[in-house]
Amino acid sequence: MPHLGRRHFLKLSTATSSLFFTAATQAQGSAEHKSATTQINWLDGPPSGNVFQGTTFGVAWPQGALRAPARFSLGTSDAGTQQVQSWITAWWPDGSVKWSAHAVSPTAHSDLAAYTRLHAVPARHSETRTETIAQKTDDQISVNTGKLQASFSKGQSFLSLSFPRQAQVQAITLLEQSTQQGEITQTRTFPCHGDVHTLEIEGNGPDRAVIRIEGKHSGPDHTQVIPFIFRFYFYKNSGAIRVIHSIIHDIDPKKYEVRGLGLNISSQFHGEAYNRHIRFVSADGGVFAEALQPLTGLRRDPGSNIRSAQTQGQAVPPEAEWSPKVSGAIGYVPVYGDYTLTQATCDGFSLKKRITKHDAWINAFSGQRASGTVFLGDVSGGVVLGIRNFWQSYPAALSVENGGENNAQLTAWLWAPDAEPMQMASYQTPENQNDYTTQRQALDITYEDYEPGFSSSYGVGRTSEIVIEFTDHTPDNTSLVAIAQRISSPPQLRQSLSDLFTSRATHAFWSPEHPQSVNSKVNQALDTLFTFYRNQIEQRRWYGFWNYGDIMHTYDADRHTWRYDIGGFAWDNGELSSVMWFWAYHLHKGNAESFRQAEAMTRHITEVDVYHIGKFAPLGSRHNVQHWGDSAKQLRISSVANAKIYYFLTADERTGELLHVQVNAVNRLQDIVPGRKTGGAAAIKAQPHHATVSFGTDWGAIAAAWLLEWERTGDEPWKNKLLASMTSIAAQPHGFFTGLGVMDLHTGEFAQDRTGALSVSHLSAMFGLPETCSELIMLLPQPDFKNAWLDYCTLYLADAQNQKNKLGQALHHLNLRQAHARLLAYAGYTLRDTALCRQAWRIFAQGDAGLLLSDFQINHLSPPAVPEAVDEAPHISTNAAAQWGLGATGLMALAPQEENIFYETL
Fold this sequence. Notes:
Blueprint: H1 6-16, E1 36-42, E2 55-60, E3 70-75, E4 82-83, E5 85-91, E6 97-104, E7 117-122, E8 134-137, E9 140-144, E10 149-153, E11 159-163, E12 167-181, E13 184-204, E14 208-218, E15 224-235, E16 240-248, E17 257-268, E18 277-282, E19 287-291, H2 304-311, H3 324-327, E20 338-345, E21 348-354, E22 362-367, E23 370-378, E24 381-387, E25 396-401, E26 407-415, H4 436-446, E27 461-471, H5 477-488, E28 493-495, H6 497-503, H7 521-539, E29 555-556, E30 561-562, H8 578-589, H9 592-607, E31 620-621, E32 633-634, H10 635-638, H11 644-650, H12 653-661, E33 690-694, H13 697-713, H14 716-730, E34 740-744, H15 769-779, H16 783-795, H17 800-807, H18 821-831, H19 834-846, E35 859-861, E36 870-872, H20 878-894, H21 900-905
Antiparallel strand pairs: 1-7, 1-28, 2-6, 3-4, 3-7, 5-6, 8-9, 9-10, 10-11, 11-12, 12-13, 12-17, 13-14, 14-15, 15-16, 16-27, 17-26, 18-19, 18-23, 20-21, 20-25, 21-22, 23-24, 24-27, 25-26, 29-30, 31-32, 33-34, 35-36
């Protein structure tokens, strides 16, 4: 191990993001250094070089294959052609690099299609590039990419740009207060501007810089509301700024409601209004294009060359060359300085404009879906402002104010002021559930755990992505559409699935799709299942600011709709690892649409379904009509297992930040009972620094958090906690079948169970525990723990006699047998026991408490049976779908040679 420790090295590499891995690993000597290479590819195919503005990606390395320091380059040859800024995101136990991240900046000479391999070669300190594109002095940070110059400071206008044009950026929130006087409702709107409290360079190097700012909005009566964290991404030679916009809702809905939420840019524009242009791009690739002061359509013709120049976004010839009938009367032609495009629903946007704020709006255009990109420019160029997932995250808006003045305003509204205010109050306050008995009775029929005060939205979050880009000309429609498409689907490099699989840097329950299995019934059913849910998202309109990325839990075949309004049957909130299923499917297939869907689900579950401040932080909420509605606050929802793959593939700093918070989440179990009325461990309040922790859903999430933190930092305390937990679970009289124990939160060790009782839950292995255990067994070999886990994997599905022989009694009425088949396959793979692998496929095919292939029958419904044409699969629930998907990918990875047993069992 490096004598400085990996945590120290991580801080160095994260702070500087240098070209090389330059830590004190040189103390180990260069003899063990060797070159390494891996294949990479573009997720959506190579992007166009003229719109590419930079990207960041992560790759995995086999244990021992790569050590720091190393120099990285991209290209087709062994030497590579473009050096890239790189840093370590995870380590193997032997000190070698497990995951590395790489920033790629645009260069004029680069052939993006040639980026097919990433090369690593040993490096020396003398080879280190020390230049950085960000600098910090006192309380100010400056950035120079070559294409733009910017500076950050504390306060409201926290970002200032001086080149290529002057601009100021600030956050804005509109709060609305309603008061009732008789039959009259009066409303007041308060504009609240963001105040930056902390300012730091989170990553810096020759190719990329990340500036992180944190603060709150100045609310009414000098209050501080809506905490925010912004990250601004700059790439060398780029004129674009990528903004990751994260907010936390902390408003009392009885007092205020959020009416608008956005990011405002104030920029300098010059020249005549007829040389200023506005552009909005639709999701279909169409462009609404106008000059603020039109010279077309007038009663008098200025000249065809005049009209042609304006419509093409070019500088209009001098007025002396116009028809005098127009040049002498140009002052009478109105200048439309204000435009607003509002995406009120996922199916409709409206565009309106007006001359000044004192004048009436007129309708300019309406359509279905806007891409979320607007351009405002003059003869010297302009500003592109874009919101990713714009129509999917309605109600959103893009506005331009004072476009004809020297100082114009562009605002990316993540919540449109024209829409209804955010509804963050609880959807119900039942008066007939005033004690435990009635609440338990209600849970029995609606599947919702209700308790006053527990359905609060206080502390939930939302992350959005915005792009600010500067151009030196007015782009033609084709070029602007290409920019809008890049904002909607950012170019993403990715390691080849075969190399990622070979690295063994992930869990054991996936493998790349094998050419011979493409047409197998299991593989085709896996595709059918993913496609069905992808289509349901569109057909059922599972969109919206707080909803996008989630799917529904259970179907109501009688109403031909998902149970969107019934207690715990509505939004899924990652129940039974639906997000992990989507990631397993992507790792298996590798296509872009599965990545985008898994990415959206990851953003949602880590932000909306989890509390970031308040008494429930950092736990997540169980499935419900509202994402925060159920009173069961649980580690299994906030588990890092849901987002670990996304973090390593993208090196996304916001996701990494959220995963880090989970390392001490177990401490909340001292006063929050995970299962509440659905069962689960009781809180331990009598013993300080102790909590009752289940060996399944709770410890699976805890172990995943500790493991990830150890991988990322190398800090021994996390490893020690893992070992203490693993050893003490294995030492229980019945291992994992003990069910739960009292954990010492300081050490991670469980107290020895003295009762000898058996306890097993069908949910224990449903939320990332199998994946985490497969990694722990590989990284921290502990024979007793391995045996305890393999016992669980085999005995859960064993016959009664074998269970009795091993445990002293049989385990009766266990649920989700199909979902546990992949555990049996893991045991067969680990023990090299063909019989167990065959039995796993047999149980999987039987579909007990899961799905049969006959359940994949999809029916198409048309009006008047339903409001609009939709598909339905009456026998598919998301619980079963997620576990079937995880089971299929797991079995194809662990026991591919025994797949024929599946068909023999049908």
